[in-house]
């Protein structure tokens, strides 16, 4: 499969002849002429490369973009033009496109894009950090702004190198420490704490946790919330953590491991709904009743979670709203721009109590 995305449309920045925050030695502002001189090309070639025109050799385009990044050159009013053009392209770089989470995320992004008359250029790097860098570099010069979700807890420095500081961008639930770019994320730690407090208040003490990938920022934060809440609400109870990979199959394996253990937990808290559903299937196969024999809870509130039997208690993340907020922030000429207000927003998950946790609740 060809991973290099196609250009949906080529857009121009408002002006290319004024300097932005980049400076040369002595504090002199960087201009387009400085980029052209360093790249050994004409000003017109620099203009075409930065605007994403196709009549520029790829090697030349890459050299111009690299030098523009090194000099911290950015066209004047780039972010403001982003919110005022009629025909625009926004790049979206995600770790995957499979599953209800990413489907809901893209639904929120696409809804705002259509309302604003925007096109989307979407790329998935399939959970591979190296391909993430390739996807980001491919976007350069081809989009006016970028939405990025990078959940890798390690390698933030490499990500910062692939994400040009002059590119209007918003990070979505990413491990990269917010700084140059705005961000919209989920309070994973607080959400996990809220779920654990619910299970503890329901009388459960031996609560097992199905974690996500070790290198995933969301998974680490949800695990941290589980541990902190257990220490707070049930001191002396040892954490019981099973490996997971955020998919149904790993939840099913974790459920089977629990069934084979000498002591069964009172409840299972899975770091996302997909693993909770896989665990539910394993428990049902063994003839156990949820929540009579064992309680179960998840995280995310994907649409399917309310239609299984019993309906799943979970932490509701407004996934589509996350995408909508991210693109809305990008289109804000202040919050999404390099050097702008750099808005950092954290969405608070909502506890949704259904029958799977053993508490009297409706199937909402």
TrEMBL record:
This protein's UniProt keywords: DNA-binding, Repressor, Transcription, Transcription regulation
Name recorded for this polypeptide: LacI family transcriptional regulator
PANTHER family hit by this protein: HTH-TYPE TRANSCRIPTIONAL REPRESSOR CYTR (PTHR30146:SF151), LACI-RELATED TRANSCRIPTIONAL REPRESSOR (PTHR30146)
Domain HTH lacI-type: 30-84
Record GO terms (molecular function): DNA-binding transcription factor activity; transcription cis-regulatory region binding
UniProt organism field: Luteimonas viscosa
């Amino acid at each position: 499969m060809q991973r290099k995305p196609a250009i949906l449309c080529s857009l121009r920045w408002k002006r290319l002849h004024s300097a932005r925050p980049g400076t040369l030695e002595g504090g002199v502002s960087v201009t387009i002429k400085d980029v052209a001189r360093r790249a050994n090309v004409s000003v017109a070639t620099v203009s075409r490369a930065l605007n994403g025109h196709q009549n520029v050799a790829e090697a030349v385009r890459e050299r111009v973009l690299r030098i523009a990044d090194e000099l911290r050159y950015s066209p004047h009013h780039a972010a403001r033009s982003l919110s005022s053009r009629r025909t625009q392209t926004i790049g979206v770089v995600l770790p995957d496109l499979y599953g209800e989470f990413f489907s809901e995320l893209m639904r929120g992004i696409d809804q705002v894009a259509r309302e604003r008359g925007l096109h989307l250029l979407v790329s998935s790097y399939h959970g591979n950090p190296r391909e993430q860098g390739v996807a980001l570099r491919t976007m350069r010069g081809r989009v006016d702004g970028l939405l990025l979700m990078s959940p890798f807890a390690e390698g933030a420095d490499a990500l910062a190198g692939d994400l040009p500081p002059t590119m209007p961008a918003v990070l979505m639930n990413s491990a990269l420490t917010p700084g140059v770019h705005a961000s919209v994320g989920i309070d994973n730690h607080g959400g996990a704490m809220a779920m654990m407090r619910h299970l503890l208040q329901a009388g459960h003490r031996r609560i097992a946790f199905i974690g996500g990938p070790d290198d995933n920022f969301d998974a680490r934060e949800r695990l941290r919330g589980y541990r902190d809440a257990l220490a707070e609400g049930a001191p002396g109870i040892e954490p019981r953590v099973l490996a997971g990979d955020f998919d149904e199959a790993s939840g099913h394996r974790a459920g089977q491991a629990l069934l084979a253990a000498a002591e069964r937990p009172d409840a299972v808290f899975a770091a996302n709904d997909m693993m909770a559903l896989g665990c539910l299937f394993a428990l049902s196969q063994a003839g156990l009743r949820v929540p009579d024999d064992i309680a179960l809870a998840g995280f995310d509130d994907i649409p399917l979670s309310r239609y299984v039997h019993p309906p799943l208690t979970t932490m509701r993340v407004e996934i589509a709203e996350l995408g909508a907020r991210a693109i809305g922030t990008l289109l804000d000429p202040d919050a999404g721009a390099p050097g702008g207000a750099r808005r950092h927003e954290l969405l608070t998950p909502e506890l949704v109590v259904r029958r799977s946790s053993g508490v009297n609740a409706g199937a909402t």
